[in-house]
Amino acid sequence: MSTSPSWGGPAWEKRVRSSARVRRASGKSVLVTGAAGFVGMHVAAALKRRGDGVLGLDNYNAYYDPDLKRARQALLDRAGVFIVEGDINDAALLRKLFDVVPISHVVHLAAQAGVRHALTDPGSYIHSNVAGLVAVLEAAKAADPQPAVVWASSSSVYGLNSKVPFSEADRTDRPASLYAATKKAGEEIAHVYNNIYGLSITGLRFFTVYGPWGRPDMAYFFFTRDILRGKPVSIFEGPDHATVARDFTYIDDIVRGCVAAVDHAGKSTGSGGKKHGQAPFRIYNLGNTSPVSVSDLVSILEQLLKVKAVKKFVKMPRNGDVQFTHANITLAEKELGYHPTTSLHSGLKKFVRWYLEYYSTSLSKQASEEDRSISS
Ligand SMILES: NC(=O)c1ccc[n+]([C@@H]2O[C@H](COP(=O)([O-])OP(=O)(O)OC[C@H]3O[C@@H](n4cnc5c(N)ncnc54)[C@H](O)[C@@H]3O)[C@@H](O)[C@H]2O)c1
Ligand SMILES: O=C(O)[C@H]1O[C@H](OP(=O)(O)OP(=O)(O)OC[C@H]2O[C@@H](n3ccc(=O)[nH]c3=O)[C@H](O)[C@@H]2O)[C@H](O)[C@@H](O)[C@@H]1O
């Protein structure tokens, strides 16, 4: 017995067309994959707000609380963005989407995120970050018009580099985790599609993004929950108690970087610009240039929550984490006009407000042990 796909049909096509309809003469028609995710929701909303046509795609997998993804979906729905439910590996679905609407840009954010989860489910990283990326690039290559692709790589590609701050030209051949290896592989794969098929591709190396509507598997998020519940938080330390730190970057700064990358994608100026008729291939760091230790992260949360944390300092397990990240953003500043403006304190203040006023009251019912188990 054949089963019909959950997509297709006149009503579905109408929603797809309406969502992707450009509202301003200068607007773009953008497919955002991973739109029910943290970064995807914010980017899709920002593009829609400025008049672009925006269509989402997400498989709502259960890596973390799917209710949170559904709540993000509801928010986008109210803004006029339809999220098609499906997997980026579904080639027929992607073909259909490109047939139904002339997509000018793909912002590809769907991926298996999280560094430590790769220890327990390595296959999901290959499925989404390697096979899934190839499926998206195959669909983009075959589409008419051929869209420009902007996609999320990761600061994790710098791996075991000890030279900081990290610049785009630095070594990225020593990944510390399978997650990082799949993002590095993604950069190489993207280069092939630029080289052979002339796709315009921009890779964005995000640095530890945080903020309202964030991911419950990330440390700032589950630290908040555990501090409020009086549970101990584990603060990782390097060898000889060395500081473990991150270049935490606030979501609104990342969104501005993504939107600027969309606008820059077709241009032939700057790094990786068109040469001999070749479409651009570019990579940018999107970070905050001011690393903060995990210990200071916890202190800021204590201050904002007005609750003392029960702190456990533990030697960083061999789990794929790196000790230190720090972005050099000179290239993104110059070519994208990217200027992050949010300090960790003021960004966390906004996160904590969202967490207390919205998340902990309406969504966190079952999000406790489950999220904790994927984070340890
Ligand atoms: N948040 C960060 O700190 C950070 C840092 C560096 C890079 N990134 C990258 O940015 C992107 C967005 O990250 P995020 O934090 O929003 O993560 P997220 O998990 O919240 O969002 C990813 C979304 O993609 C969807 N998805 C996953 N696999 C899919 C598949 N096969 N088909 C369809 N949908 C699928 C998930 O359901 C999820 O909603 C990812 O590529 C991630 O690797 C994130
Ligand atoms: O920048 C990136 O590329 C990556 O940023 C984050 O990864 P990470 O920086 O490891 O973010 P968290 O998982 O929130 O960890 C933040 C810091 O807290 C530390 N940590 C984590 C968990 C814990 O129990 N204790 C602890 O000290 C980690 O070692 C790390 O230094 C995202 O989770 C990845 O998806 C992303 O690719």
Automatic annotation (TrEMBL):
Its EC number is 5.1.3.6. Residues 30-266 form the NAD-dependent epimerase/dehydratase domain. GO terms for molecular function: UDP-glucuronate 4-epimerase activity. It is a multi-pass membrane protein. It is found in: Golgi apparatus, Golgi stack membrane. GO terms for cellular component: Golgi cisterna membrane. Pfam families: Epimerase (PF01370). Its main location: Golgi. Keywords: Isomerase, Membrane, NAD, Transmembrane, Transmembrane helix. It catalyses: UDP-alpha-D-glucuronate = UDP-alpha-D-galacturonate. It comes from the Eukaryota. Belongs to the NAD(P)-dependent epimerase/dehydratase family. This is UDP-glucuronate 4-epimerase. It comes from Zingiber officinale (Ginger).
